[in-house]
Structure formats: structure tokens, C-alpha cells
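Deviation from plan, reported transparently: PXL complex.
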Amino acid sequence: MTHGRILAVHDISCVGRCSLTVALPIISSVGIECSVLPTAVLSTHTGGFQGFTYRDLTSDVVPIQDHWRSLGLTFDAFYTGFLGSFEQIDLVKDLIDNLSNEKTTVYVDPVMADNGKLYTIFDESFPKGMRTLCEKADVLMPNLTELCFMLGLEYRPGPYTWEYIESIFKEAEVFGLKKIVITGVSFDSDTVGAVFKDYETGATGQVMRPVIEGYYHGTGDVFGSALVGALENKLSLEDSVRVAVDFTVEAIKRTFYSGADVRYGVDFELGIADYVKHVGDLRKSLRFEQVREPGQIARVSDLAATIWPEAYSFLDHGLIEYMVRTFQSYGPISDYVAKGFVYYIVVCGTEDAGYIGYNMEKDRMFLSKMYISKDHRGEGLFTKVLAKLKSDCRDAGVNAIYLTVNRENTAAIGAYKHLGFKTIDRVDSPIGEGFEMNDYIMELRF
Ligand code: PXL
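Because the crystal trials were delayed, the predicted structure below was used instead.
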């Protein structure tokens, strides 16, 4: 799989692990090509050392953008963080407008405040400007202070209730986002973490970890970069938030236990190997997604159109075409789902690997469909699918699965036998247009 090219738009604070010195290594480590647009060069970040130098690169943004445009360059994602002025905010908005393509994702971390206070270099009007950039975001990752300031709400320190967080998710609808992840949220005095909402699916959740005392610089950027890396690897929002929280918390713990000077940021480097493994494992993990929405039905019919000709190469082409149209296309699948058949898409990592469909009868499951695409054969998926089916049977108080299989389909018959199915009967049934199915009935009791 080829990954997209992301543009990270932040300052470079030369010392003190934050912004670009954090985004580049973390995002690159999970296989994402990370280009950079430094908006300023500082000797250190502004949050703890005595003084800092600041070379503003605002006047470079337009020439850089113009050069990229002359090359016909676009970016598949933007990740913006600390921006020093209103002018920079406006330039970054133009940059997004001018260098996006139709699948570009915009990640915005509106870095400007924490714990109820604006960073000292910003004045009261800054959140208004940042809000206009957030309106361009697909994925917003503020802390609660930043979000409250942009929404004109009073910031209250935690702990919070879930109802309060829900009300904040609702307020944030004004940004027109696809996803939001809010950091620094606590529901009790012992834990802190992130809450998230996917506005497209309605899914919400929280990832909480024990509080570690102290204030750690740059953790917002460590978290944001790890989140962007995971999401750009097409992990689900929930998995991405969990991976990013764990990566950040481990870095804080390492820093805390080593007694290091926290002004230099957190020790994330030693966690990169685990982060890469975590993202890699999740990319390969198996999920069963129950089909309920039109978009999911369309994915099943796409899978059928690919898998059927692969699986039934021994059948007449006309028959395959007829079977897919009559039983495995959008309309018939919707009808089956409406009749109470359960369909799952078998999602392997980030890819749709196959699908299954069954009807739970009184004392047996009728397994109507179990198809895995050629690309995912040999990965032991059938055994895992069967484990899922047995678990659904047990939930329904049922201890047998039966299915029909074409008598010429020796490969499938062999596979079912291997899984423990036995042939219990044979049937010949006309299915219209002069076609006939010549099947065995096979059953598994457990
Ligand atoms: O995202 C944190 C950050 C980034 N860049 C600069 C900063 C800070 C936080 O203080 O000062 C320059």
C-alpha cells in the first residue's frame, strides 16, 4: 500500500522537543512521508526556558507555496500546530485551499492555551483567529481550554461528567468536523486522557490513564503526531486515540522516572519501536463489522463481485453472473439484511478481506455466505471466522451450523471438512432461468 504525503506546518523550536522536531520523527516512523513547512525558528520553545530567539518565517510561506504550485504538488494531509500570528493563520488557510486534492485530510491542533490560560505570547483575540482555521479541519485535536476559548465558553477545571463532554461535542459541531479528539480530560482526580467523537458515524469514547504528576512540555505535539500517524495508517479513531495516548503516557512516565529536566520535553524516542509495532499490529488485526448501513451493503456487493469469479472459476460464466446479480448484489443483500440475516464484513487491518452472512434458525445456524478474497487466503481467516460464528451461536443458545456447497467445489468441500463439517445430505434445486444448484448439505455440531 502506498501512503500519502503529509505536510506538517509548525515552528521549529531548536531545543525542547516540540512541534516539528517531534512531528517529523513520529510521523515518519510509521511510514508516512512527512514534508515540512517551518513557520518560525526559535532557539527553544516559549514555555519554560529563560527567553528565546524568534525568527519569523511568515514572509517565506507564500513563495514556498508558489513554488510548490508551479510543480503541481498537492498534499494528501495537512497537520498544523503552533502558529504565531493571525497572518500565519490566514496564510495556512490559503495553503490548504491551494495545495489540497480531493482526498486531502486536514488535521488541526489549535495550539495556544492550556489549563485555562492562553500561552503568554498570545492575546485574547487569538482564539477567534484560530477558530477560522479550525473551520477548515477534518480532524480537530484541541485540549479543553483551547476548545472552550474558541467556542466562547467559560473554561472550568475538571473532573467532568460525560454529559458535559457530550455537550462540548455538540457545541463543537459548529466547526463542521469529521472527527474531534479532546485531550487533557478527566472524569475523576486519579485519571486523565482523551475523549473522541466521530461525527460521521456518531461513535464516541474515552481513553483514560492514571495521572502522572507534573507539567510536561510538548506532550500535545507528541500526542497529535502519534494520532496523525495512526489515522494516516487508516486505523479506526478509537484505535488511533488509544495508540497515541499510550505512546504519550509512556514517554511521560520515562521522563518522570528518569528525573529529567522537563523543559526539554518528554522522552518519546525510546517508545518509537513500540509505537511502530502497535500501529503495524492493528493494521493487520481482524474485525467483524456488522452490516447495517447502505455504504456497508455496497462494500459487500463489491466484495462479491471480486470474490465470486475467483472462487467459482469452475462454473459457467453466465451462471456466476446470474448468481451474483440475483443473490449477491446491492438489492438482494439489502433484502436479506431486512429479513434478519446477519452479515459481517471481515475487515483485516485496513482492508475488506471478505464477508459472511447467516440466518439464526431455532436450533441451527444457516451459514449462507462465507467468502474470503484470494489476497487474504492462507492467513487462517476461515478458522477465525468460524470461531466468531460459533460464538454468535453460543450467544443464541445454538450448537450447530449448516451450509450448502456446490458438489463440484472440491476446494471448499475440503476446507469445510478441515473445519470439522460433515456431509449430511445432497440437494438439487432449480434457481431460475434454467439454472440448477447441485449441492451437498454440510453440518458442524459442537
Ligand atoms: O506545541 C507546543 C509549542 C510549539 N511551539 C512553540 C511553543 C510551544 C509550547 O509552548 O512555545 C514555539
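Residues 1 and 145 are 38 Å apart (CA to CA). We consider this an acceptable substitute for the interim report.
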